[in-house]
Amino acid sequence: MLELAILGFLAEGPLHGYQLRHRIAHLSGHVRPVSDGSLYPAINRLVSAGMLDRRTERGSSAAQRHTLSLTNAGHCELLCRLRDAGGLDISDSSRYFTILAFLSHLPDTADQHAVLRRRLDFLEQPASFFYDGDRRLGVEDTDDPYRRGMLTIARATSRAERAWLREVLA
Questions:
Q1: One-character DSSP codes across 59-78
Q2: How many CA atoms lie less than 13 Å away from 137 in the CB half-sphere?
Q3: Rounded to whole angstroms, how far apart are CA atoms 83 and 99?
Q4: pLDDT category, 30, cuts 50, 70, 90?
Q5: How many angstroms separate the Cα of 67 from the Cα of each of 20, 59, 126?
Q6: At 105, phi and psi to the nearest 5?
Q7: What whole-number distance in Å separates Cα of residue 85 and Cα of residue 117?
Q8: Which of 9, 95, 107, 159 is the most exposed place for a label (fewest CB within 10 A)?
Q9: Which pTM was predicted?
Q10: Looking at the predicted structure, is the pLDDT value of residue 159 above 70?
């Protein structure tokens, strides 16, 4: 997802590394903080793969700054990752939100809607955090106030997201 966020933000225009880190932190930093130790190796992988171009410029001080931009190959990779999102990219909320943040880059509404339908299909499958054997446990099945809270919040969030997805897909 870090590479997807890099590609997605650079699809909006060239950025310096620190600008990119700042944007990624705002997108997902509350869930998964991004460190220089993970960001810059990901950037280097994408540069080596020909998906990003790195241009060195003089900074306002003696330090050099690197401007990153998306190559045609990087743009194609972004579109492919968005179009083919499935599995954990659909079921894991933080990964899905990264997909959703850049989904408008897909030029074809049908491709966008296919991703949204996969999410809706996932959300419509019965699930719970807690089970008794094979039986899903709901809010009414537990006396633990914290588990009840988890289940109540998850139910409300899922209901709201399903309503939004149906509205967008209509």
A1: -SSSSEEEEEEE-HHHHHHH
A2: 13
A3: 9
A4: low
A5: 10, 11, 46
A6: -70, -20
A7: 11
A8: 107
A9: 0.87
A10: yes
- The structure tokens 């899903």 sit at 136
End-to-end CA distance of the chain: 28
- Cα-based angle 122, 80, 162 (whole degrees, multiple of 5): 25
H helices of the chain, where? 2-10, 17-28, 36-48, 72-83, 88-91, 93-102, 109-123, 145-169
**What's the pLDDT score for residue 64?**
77
Of how many residues is the chain composed? 170
Phi and psi at residue 125, to the nearest 5°: -80, 135
Sign of the CA dihedral running 21, 58, 51, 76: positive
Contact indicator for 12, 65 with CB cutoff of 8 Å: no
Q: Hey, what are 50's tokens?
A: 């020909």
Asked if residue 42 has pLDDT above 90, the reply is yes
Q: Whose structure tokens read 């030029």?
A: 107
Q: Would you call 143 exposed, middle or buried from its count of C-beta atoms within 10 A (0-12, 13-18, 19+)? A: exposed
